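3.2 Worked example (two chains)
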Amino acid sequence: MKIEMLIDREAAERSGADAVTRLTEAATRATFYRDNLTEAQIASNRRIVAISAPTCLAAASNAHQHFVAAFVDGAFAGYVIATVHAPDNRELDWMMVHPDFHGTPVSAALMEAGIDWLGAKRPLWLNVIRHNERAIRFYRKFGFEVDADAVTDHVIPHAIMRRAPR
């Protein structure tokens, strides 16, 4: 499997708004949903899909953000957005991988791209839906651990995961 990684403007141009929306829809359907979601939680998931393309485009041209898109054999496989809010407030902000590429090296390649840009020697954080155990296990492989004291106000319960500097 050959993974092609594109960044910022080139990534935005190659992936395209419609493809970002379709990929985000597929990724959220596979990982954000479960049987007992409320209407408000379903609406929250739909909002993520609706804002995904403009969020990626904005990140691609923001000096404090980094947008990376992964392609496998020409197929848009996933993306990550990394955000520097402040010198020691660095977030892996968005990570979406099409379900066809779950369990492949795509996710790891995107994580490494985000961590490298943010600075592996800096404290990093991300948020994850609490019921997404697969994602939590994946993030732990990269040194992230759930911060039991962190609280979020998401409609769907999220956990904050932090990674100490290395």
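3.2.1 Second chain
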Amino acid sequence: MKKKIIGAAVLSVFAVGVHAQSSVTLYGLIDTGIVYTNNQGGSSVVQEQSSMLSNEVWGLRGSEDLGGGLRTIFRLENGFNIQNGKTTYAGTMFGRQAFVGLQSDLYGTLTFGRQYDSVVDDLGPIALANNGDGNNLAAHPFDNDNVDDSFYINNSVKYVSPTYRGLQAEALYGFSNAAGGFSNNRAYSFGVTYNVGPINLAAAYLQLNNGSLSGMGAVSNNDFVNFPASRQRVMGVGGNYTIGPASVGLLWTHTLFDNTQPGANSVIAQSFDSLHFDNYEVNVHYAVTPAISLAGAYTFTQGAFDGSTGSGDPKWHQVTLMADYAFSKRTDVYVEGVYQHAYGATGSAFEGAFINGLAQATTGNQVAATVGLRTRF
């Protein structure tokens, strides 16, 4: 009897040891609320909506310790809509992220699959709209710079360096996977961050060639690319500074499109020979108490387009204000208001204001207010 007890104890210790060297975590976030908009297609509307602030997700992430500071890592993440139970990206099981790779304490991280680009990774955390518990309503018009992660990069290999004296670099390449068309629907990006004490600085670049215009290459037709183009380039710099319970962020991004064509998920049904946007954002976060936080942002976006239907210089002013109360580390409630004023493009598809996640207004002004609940697991 004693031998059996001792044997069971040894097996238990061994099992714990094996488990300690690998882990798999199930996680997720649900965000739902009521949204009022003064003008969507000419009418005011009250809606129950999801993901007005944070993307709704569930996923699996894990790692296995291989020894010597080396680990295998993976992530499988699904986006969904709690209002109807549908996946965000049609025809996919893990449409938000799906990758596997190796992570080394000494040499950095190398991953393969469907992943964020460097603009999302490096500039996203500086914007009010970002890739974490962000604020989708606060995205720059049409999320033209992908700071709010409207699309992801398929068939990609990504390298992220170790952090050295606050500096970290990353690079990504998304293959077209097309025979005889190496550069057709491919993507590449790179970025660098510097994070020491209260200072966080970042710069990033992204380029798509024929993104979502052909086949299932680096960007698929399921992704929310508002302006599929023969070439899209995004570049930006920004930073934030933390002062006690407050942080202030500044961000500039510049997006260039060549020869755009409306796609399956385009919200602007107009083609352009050339189109560009400059986005200038300032944002503030302030923790009133550990449970109560306030946030706000102002963005000015200046655009220009040219094509067979004419040319124009649209502009957008957008103000976002938000208050959040955390019941716990997992659950919070929020209230938010967004105002956008669009002008300078009368007679074009950009004439009406268009807050991200909503339908376009018939006038140059649009106001949205939402109250919602988020919970994480």
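3.3 Remarks
Confidence is low (pLDDT under 50) at residues 1-20.
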